[in-house]
Amino acid sequence: MAKIHQTFVCQSCGAVYNRWRGRCEACNGWNTIVEETGTAGPASGPVATRPSRARGRVFPLEGLTGEAKEAPRTPSGIAELDRVTGGGFVRGSVILIGGDPGIGKSTLLMQAGAAMAFRKERVVYISGEEAVGQVRLRAERLGLADREVELAAETNVEDIVETLSQGRPPALAIIDSIQTMWTETVESAPGTVTQVRSSAQALIRFAKTTGTAVILVGHVTKDGQIAGPRVVEHMVDAVASFEGDQGHHFRILRAVKNRFGPTDEIGVFEMTDGGLSEVPNPSALFLAGRDHAAPGTAVFAGMEGTRPLLVEIQALVAPSSLGMPRRAVVGWDPNRLSMVLAVLEAHGGIRLGAHDVYLNVAGGLRITEPAADLAVAAALVSSMSGAALPAETVYFGELGLSGAVRPVSQAVARLKEAEKLGFSKAVMPQARSDVGERGMQTEALRHIADLVAGITSGAPRGGRRKPAREWPSDDDV
Questions:
Q1: Which residues bind ATP (predicted)?
Q2: For the chain, which ranges sit under pLDDT 70?
Q3: Assigned domain for 52 exists
Q4: Is 29 known as a binding-site position?
Q5: Is 67 contained in some domain?
Q6: Is 287 exposed, middle or buried (0-12, 13-18, 19+ CB in 10 A)?
Q7: What is the DSSP letter of 465?
Q8: Largest CA distance in the chain
Q9: Containing structural domain, residue 193
Q10: Is 177 annotated as a binding residue?
Q11: Tens digit of pLDDT for each residue in 17-47?
């Protein structure tokens, strides 16, 4: 008879305990530990008592002496999705996609599956949250009801694997979502750590043995992280995050992990009435509608993976009536903003201690690279002094704690993108000689004081520009 053993597993991080606790010592989460009962079979005993198994075959590692061969890929038919995955879906790979509810994950995957089915590839869409009729309604809204995509509403992993094994192996299998799947080998409720891990392991085993590319949709927590144990992210081949603010029509698909391609690559989409449409030139859309004459705006020439991207940095510096001035940031690291403010105070002579500071990245994009330090500093100084920055100038560079402007990577690609969009000047760190060979005019900075001096020299008298419109007083009336 199989031995029954009880364990207590944290539903946030997957830590295992032998008794119940109110707080998890691994993630410091309260009331996240749940009792789970498992069955220890004959194979769970000591290694010496297990039945012997035949040894597996050993294959030589090809490609050591010859040319390395590319992994066979299946294009999805969506160029932005292929950019994130590295050129298409690798056969037998497993991709985990997470995102906020309603951000458009199911819409994107339905469009990708329909594009592959149009090329006579077998695509199976399995929904654990919606009925087949609801999935059909979405396909009709997107104009994809005539595509030969196989649909199913099932949550049992064993039944899913048995269904997918019938006929020719699918080129793509979409599981929406992994938190709703459950397997008969584990006696716990669906959505628990053990069920998510066991269900993902069974689907990964099916993908590796049949060559089917499997996409797992994962829920996210309040912090934006994929819910469930982090071990699932280590089990899959690629992890992508679907980001975007529902107040904006832009959606960003960002590669967090990719064994078959570059990481930190992004794909830009636009939410329309007919679904998600690709944005081949996101820089032009992110800069559309900006106010050229307004102080506090700077254009940052950044890099997202291998793609150069131009975005607008908006800053507002206003006198504060509070004892502790506010620091509000949207789309950037708040700790990085505190460092830039300290450098401006210590080495730039800009007194911001008694002012509220608001910083925003236009378009809902989130920037993570330190090359945005110089653009943020330029926007802050422009807002503080009231001097508008030149409309045809881009900024990029990293700031050191000593006030030095440090060089960044891929400067040539940034300049090429800026020149393509009509910019004629770039304020950047001191770089190599080959960077200045382009047609753009470059201004090399060594210290943050040079940037402050260049901006404040064109500031209006009095230090701050008057408001564009003032309400009439009682005397005027």
A1: 99-106
A2: 1-5, 37-71, 221-229, 245-247, 432-439, 458-477
A3: no
A4: no
A5: no
A6: middle
A7: P
A8: 99
A9: 73-280
A10: no
A11: 888 989 988 888 888 888 876 544 444 444 4
Please indicate, yes or no, whether residues 127 and 209 belong to a single structural domain of this protein. yes
Where are the alpha helices (H) located in 252-390, listed in sequence order? Answer: 282-286, 334-347, 373-385
Residue type for 152, please?
A
Q: Are residues 162 and 242 in the same domain?
A: yes
Q: CA–CA separation, 204 vs 195, rounded Å?
A: 14
Are both 396 and 308 inside the same structural domain? yes
- Retrieve residue 319's tokens: 């006198």
φ, ψ of residue 205 to 5 degrees: the values are -65, -40
For tokens 């990708």, name the residue: 112
The answer to whether 102 is a known ligand-binding residue is: yes
| Angle (deg, nearest 10), helices 132-141 and 105-118 | 80
Which of the 8 DSSP states describes residue 447?
Answer: B
Is 269 found in the same domain as 162?
A: yes
The reply to whether 262 and 302 lie within a common domain is no
CATH number at residue 230: 3.40.50.300
Task: Give one DSSP letter per residue of 64-78, joined into a string.
Answer: SSSPPPPPPEE--S-
The CATH number of whichever domain residue 451 belongs to comes to 3.30.230.10
Q: Where are the beta strands (DSSP E) in 45-179?
A: 73-74, 89-90, 94-99, 123-127, 150-153, 172-176
Q: Are residues 266 and 356 in the same domain?
A: no
Count the domains in the chain. Answer: 3
Q: Is 100 annotated as a binding residue?
A: yes
Contact 243, 254 (CB under 8 A): yes
3-state secondary structure (DSSP) of residue 49: helix
CA distance 31 to 477: 63
- DSSP-derived letter for residue 454 is H
Cα 276 from chain centroid (whole Å): 17
Known binding residue 105? Answer is yes
Q: How far apart are CA 232 and CA 225, in angstroms?
A: 12
User: Domain check: are 256 and 328 in the same one?
Assistant: no
pLDDT of res. 467: 43
- The whole model's pTM is what? 0.76
Amino acid at 15: A
Residues contacting 219, CB < 8 A, separation 6+: 98, 101, 177, 179, 226, 227, 228
Tens-digit pLDDT profile for residues 267-322: 999 888 888 999 888 888 888 878 888 899 999 999 988 889 999 999 999 999 88
**Three-state SS annotation for 339-363:** HHHHHHHHHCCCCCCCEEEEEEECC
The helix (H) or strand (E) run that includes residue 281 is none
Question: In a 3-state reduction of DSSP, which class is residue 266?
Answer: strand
Flag whether 101 is marked binding. yes
